[in-house]
Amino acid sequence: MKNKLLPFLIILSSLIFIIRLFWVQIINIDDVKLSNKNSVEKVYNYPERGYIFDRNNKLIVGNEPFYDLMIVPSEIKLTDTLEFCKILKIDKKVLIEKIKKAKNYSTIKPSVFLSQISKKDYAVIQEKLWKYKGFSVRKKSNRNYILNSASNILGYISEVNDYEVRDNSYYESGELIGRQGIEKSYENKLRGIKGVSYFQKDNFNRITGPYKEGIYDTLFQKAKNINLTIDSDLQVYGDSLMINKFGSIIAIEPESGEILSLINAPNFDPNLLIGRDRSKNYIKLKNDTIGKPLFDRGLQGMYPPGSTFKLINGLIALEENVISPQTKIACNEGHFYSKNRFMKCHCKPGTINDLNSAIYTSCNTYFATIYKNTLEKFDDSKTGMNKWNEHVKTFGLGNYLGYDHPLGQPGLIPDSKYYDRWYPNNRWRAVTTISNGIGQGEILTTPIQLGNIAATIANRGWYKTPHFVKTITNDSIKLKYRQKKYSSINKKHFENIIEGMYDVIEKGTAQNSKIKDIKIVGKTGTAENFIKINGVRKQLTDHSIFIGFAPKDNPEIAIAVFIENGYWGTRWAAPIASLMMEKYLNKKVERKYLEKYILSGNLINEYLKPYTKTNFKINE
Amino acid sequence: MNNDVNIRKIDWTSVMILFVLVMLGLGNIYSSSQAYLLDSIFTMNSFSKQLFFAIASIFIFLFVQILPYSFFTKYASILYLLSIISLIGLFLFGSEINGALAWYQFGGFSLQPSEFAKPFTALALAKYLSDINSNIKTIKTQFYSFLIILIPIILIILQPDPGTIIIFLSFFLVFYKIGLPSIYMNFFIGFIVLFFATILLSPNYVMIFLTFLTLLLLYFLKKKSYYIKKILVYTTVFSVFIYSVDFIFNNVFEQRHRDRFNIVMGLEEDYRGSGYNTNQSRIAFASGGMFGEGFLKGSQTRGNFVPEQHTDYIFSTVGEEWGFLGASSIIILFTFLMLRISKRAELQRNLFSKIYSYSTVTIIFTHFFINIGMVIGLVPTIGIPLPFLSYGGSSLMAFVLLFSIYIKLDSQRTSRW
């Protein structure tokens, strides 16, 4: 042992050293890549972020340069302090303080001396800067939202967070990323690809030349510009109509599935979410818990569709041969749908409706009955329910629509399993779900899904997935936005429904929404809704809904309007939809009386009701 | 005296390895001082100074070879005394570099006497222990041998230079090798562990742990009175040790000594942040990869990122520029050299030469182990050079001297029998 100790120690430690070398030099080198070597400085060259235009090539999002004045304290030579203070618009005291602060950070590394200098001030500084050694200007760029609207569609950009840096090898901290909306879903197109140059540095952090003659350097790839499908005039007009109302307008070009406008009310200025006050403004918006401006009602709000859903039930009943257009059903201010259960309707006693009059009078009895008959056509209500569910889903309901915006909700279209959970052991049948017949009950849809129903009916049976981006520079939009998706309903049945919808405007529930010389069709909806206040379920004023399209025979615009707690569909949603149609089709609005009525309409008191301590009245 | 020189008996293989190592050292010092941003006159000096010392080393080697064999046995004690005097002289004439009072300066050159104390202490020990009256198993011999290494250790503690202290402590391996009872080894290892534990933690914690351990052992071995006595002796000695380390550290040492120790032990952060050297060196190794970035092409080396790279961290230059293959080659060269010396020491029949040869391997091995271990991040940062490769005139010449004496003694192996 004593004789062998030293040779043993020598061989053992050499072996350990060689194994360790193998480990540090060959195997475990991931964490010491090129970018981590502090002898190498990585400098990125960023392409300018892509511009966003509307469908008519009007620029709505651009970029605005701003400048940071950088300082390297060790190189400072101040030839004329007075002049320098004057061009920077700062006191001498501030100047000394700032230099001291920079020195504390580092004497040889550049740090920000003055940040966010505007273009105008920059011009003055730039002219004189050569005189002052140790100062340089770093150009940065920020978003400039020219259109003071559509913040919900555009989204915003902000610095990447730690998770994104960790999960996505492209980003490094301090870089900008699309945070919401189009900025997020088209991030890869809008940002381009940054270029990188490597420089050899010494231990004083000074760059001494390109690293390995620049063999690892890459050029940046230009960002792509985007044309939205949005019509900015229509978007802004929609914003104005929605003042003092909460809700959403969605307009789609039926032929292409292009979203002409998506208005979310209340709205906010997209410029609030850029620049130095971004986080402060964000918190303010977040704290508006009544208006919830960050909540996109058009994409995220799930509401009962109300009477607008009767159109779907009518189409399914026709397709399943449960009714013909001539089928007549009597209504006596409602009907008993089972022994002791009565559903009210606003039809006068003794009314007999066929499909057409049922649509334009929005008869509950008619549609509840045909819904029940559709389900009962099959051997058991389970099969019927699932068949009905299949039909409904082909309209893009009950699931995410697949548009190119990160926000969304699936809505809800119940099937037999859904009811089995609530009523196990076959304790439910068609009548249990009767409210679905009139668009109440369990059905939930988002306004964009309602807009898509309008587009599908306008197209007589098909739709293209709604989308926000029309063209991308040197690139094409996804195939799925160019393909027709057919509903399960035969084309011939749509005309009957559309006739009824036409009469809704001509002699039915929405006569106030007529436009001279344009045949518009539509359907009003009034949806009951409830909230819980301190655990007590309370009914609120009905939602005012309208879906429709125009012109009747050659549709150019399909629309869905959703006004929270607006009561009758006729009261707010229908006139707003018709004004939007007029604005889009005629480029101007002649019905000033109607426009004035909508513009001055104010529902804020309605929205405050649940927050008052006292009991409140609804549906006034 | 000429019949003492026997060219054919010289271990030319070892000499060649040494030559290669010194040449590699020169090449890497050239590269790591090529950082083109430092003052170029100053940096060129590092290399040319080392070149000068390397040439001087050749003369040292030749000079040692022509000396008569008896010179070393005769003058061992005097050389030892001279080196002790030079260490004491530091407190009068020395100058402080990097916080240690370890240098004499003459014009542009500086000399570190503690480097030369290594071979001379080895000579003195060999001389004393090979004496017919010495027996390492007796207390008297043990006392004097410990004294021989203790005197330089105390003088170096006062500089302070922790790395060199460890080198002198490594002579215990030599004692052990030639028959020191293992109880000393136990104390020796115990002292080292307790020394670090006491400084890193606090003496009271270490004491509590020691008491606990003692009680535990007493409980399990209560039936065997022989062990109980032994355990109590160990515990008493260790307790005294713990508190004297604490006392010496806090009362005898000055603040600058403590600071230096704390920095070495990693208790206090260097101004560049803890582990900066180790981390930089780590990056240099990783960027070397299998084949290295090539001579004069190491990016960390060029950027001069590894502090002390041409001295203690020279091995990281090897790692970056010559890669895994280059670095392991150097380890293999060292291993081969050390094994060769220790094997020839076994064959040595002259006790003086044998003990000296053991000391040579032990000194080289301790440097090798601590330096490379530190550079590749296995051993805490302790500043000692890599033999033959690191920049530093004193260290290079002292190692060559150590080695030359070994070669001289080795070449006389059978001629005297």
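qc> Chain A has three domains: 34-66+140-228, 80-115, 232-611.
qc> done
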